[in-house]
Design goal:
Helix 1 packs parallel to helix 2 and helix 6 crosses helix 7. The chain has one domain. The chain is of the alpha+beta class. The chain contains eight helices and five strands.
Length: 204
């Protein structure tokens, strides 16, 4: 299941550098690589290839060879254009893989799931150093605060899918760059204002 989340542009650039190296036939691990880069290097060309995180345009226009220009023209990117250059945020499309396995009696009893974890960033520059937008953290918090809400494997699967699908717009953050509902509200408001101004000029 695809769902929206976010990443730092610098992390995306590092990941794509490894991808480009693998495509050219290289792939010697660099001592300075982070965990994300090592994962991509190890599994990108595996017989069971890794499904890496994609930007909106990489996901939607999957046949394009290069989406870098389009990636910098996201609504979120335009909102940050007057902010300091470091730690720019991009909207990403992540994937949730989830299976509900039946036990010997035929009843669903085990949930196996996998989704990307945003790699650790420099604490001083991480827009979400406290994990307000961390999906796994919110799943665990829900299970701790409302344990009775999950009574069976399908209930847990539903909770995981729900937290993933709502993470981008529902999970609040004190960091301005991660207040996605507000960013889209401002963008839509700007478009409406522009359209009304054009209509007003035509009327007069």
């Amino acid at each position: 299941m695809p769902y929206l989340h976010w990443d730092i542009k610098d992390q995306l650039d590092k990941r794509e550098k490894v991808v480009a190296q693998k495509i050219r036939g290289g792939g010697v691990e660099d001592a300075g690589w982070n965990r994300d880069q090592k994962l991509v290097n190890a599994y990108l060309r595996d017989k069971h290839p890794l499904h890496i995180r994609r930007t909106l345009d990489q996901y939607y226009y999957h046949t394009l060879k290069d989406t870098r220009k389009r990636d910098l023209d996201q609504v979120v990117s335009r909102y940050q254009k007057d902010m300091p250059p470091e730690s720019k945020v991009l909207t990403m499309v992540d994937q949730l893989w989830l299976w509900v396995l039946r036990g010997p009696d035929g009843q669903p009893e085990t949930v196996v799931n996998c989704f990307p974890q945003r790699d650790a960033w420099k604490p001083s520059e991480d827009p979400d150093e406290h994990g307000y937008t961390d999906v796994l953290r919110h799943i665990k918090l829900h299970l701790l605060t409302e344990p009775s809400s999950v009574r069976h494997a399908y209930g847990l699967a539903g909770l995981i899918a729900s937290k993933c699908s709502r993470a981008y717009l529902d999970i609040g953050s004190v960091e301005e760059r991660l207040r996605f509902p507000e960013i889209y509200e401002i963008a839509v408001g700007d478009v409406v204002s522009t359209c009304l101004a054009i209509l007003d000029q035509r009327v007069h």
